[in-house]
């Protein structure tokens, strides 16, 4: 008989609302770009789903686009703890540039390659380093806090890193829209990617 792993925690990881740089296809990284009007609306639309999830706390990137999304989406009814450890990857010379900029287009292809964990733009960090700081931070949270249903307000690339940490990570390239929510179960045998969370409300 196969032992059933106990689900210790459930992580509901969501991407911030749209920014003008998202709309323009520009890479943001650690650059602190605010939500635009559509992004504000997306954050408001998240509030129904997050209410239904009965979260105990939200851990948020300290960048404005993620923090403000968390504030709007939770209606500030539960604690929100900000940290630089949940930021997007630092992208160095690529920050602010279009994904199609001739200066970075080859590097951007490598950056998207799920098999290339060690590539980084000059002045930036690699996917491996990015995952390392996420794991280190959450390990410290899990060691100190007993929360079981945790929201995480973060960025598209950081969501990809969360999935890559999971033992059942998909092999294909991943992309998550602004306002998307994914669920990850943290069990005694590792992290399990449960997929996109969709609202039950019509």
Which sequence of strands runs across the widest sheet?
3-2-4-1-5-6
In helices, the fraction of residues equals: 25-40%
Q: Write down the domain tally.
A: 1
CATH class: Alpha Beta
Fold and architecture overview:
The chain is of the alpha/beta class. It has one domain: 3-Layer(aba) Sandwich (Rossmann fold), CATH 3.40.50. The protein has 6 helices and 6 strands, in the order E-H-H-E-H-E-H-H-E-H-E-E. It has helices spanning 20-24, 37-53, 64-74, 105-112, 127-144, 156-165, and strands at 7-15, 57-61, 80-83, 149-154, 181-187, 190-196. It has a 6-stranded mixed β-sheet. Helix 3 (64-74) links the parallel strand 2 and strand 3 (80-83). Helix 2 (37-53) crosses helix 3 and helix 5 (127-144) crosses helix 6 (156-165). The radius of gyration is 17 Å and the shape is globular. The model has no long low-confidence stretch (mean pLDDT 93).
Question: Briefly, what is this?
Answer:
With 202 residues, this protein is α/β, with parallel strands linked by helices. The chain is globular and about 45 Å long.
Task: Provide key terms for this protein.
202 residues, alpha/beta, Rossmann fold, six-stranded mixed β-sheet, 6 helices, 6 strands, globular
Topology, element by element:
Layout: E1 7-15, H1 20-24, H2 37-53, E2 57-61, H3 64-74, E3 80-83, H4 105-112, H5 127-144, E4 149-154, H6 156-165, E5 181-187, E6 190-196
Parallel strand pairs: 1-4, 2-3, 2-4
Antiparallel strand pairs: 1-5, 5-6
Helix pairs in contact: 2-3, 5-6
């Amino acid at each position: 008989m196969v032992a059933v792993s106990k689900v210790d925690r459930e992580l509901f990881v969501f991407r911030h609302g749209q920014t003008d740089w998202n709309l323009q296809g520009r890479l943001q990284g650690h650059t602190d770009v605010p939500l635009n009007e559509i992004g504000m609306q997306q954050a408001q639309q998240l509030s129904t789903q997050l209410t239904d999830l009965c979260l105990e706390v939200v851990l948020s990137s300290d960048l404005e686009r993620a923090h403000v999304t968390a504030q709007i989406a939770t209606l500030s009814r539960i604690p929100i703890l900000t940290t630089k450890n949940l930021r997007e990857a630092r992208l160095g010379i690529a920050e602010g540039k279009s994904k199609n900029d001739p200066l970075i287009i080859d590097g951007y292809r490598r950056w998207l390659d799920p098999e290339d964990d060690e590539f980084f733009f000059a002045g930036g960090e690699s996917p491996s380093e990015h995952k390392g700081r996420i794991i280190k931070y959450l390990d410290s949270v899990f060691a100190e806090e007993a929360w079981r249903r945790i929201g995480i307000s973060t960025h598209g690339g950081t969501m990809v890193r969360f999935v890559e940490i999971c033992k059942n990570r998909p092999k294909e390239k991943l992309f998550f829209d602004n306002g998307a929510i994914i669920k990850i179960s943290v069990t005694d045998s590792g992290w399990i990617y449960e997929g996109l969370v969709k609202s039950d409300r019509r």
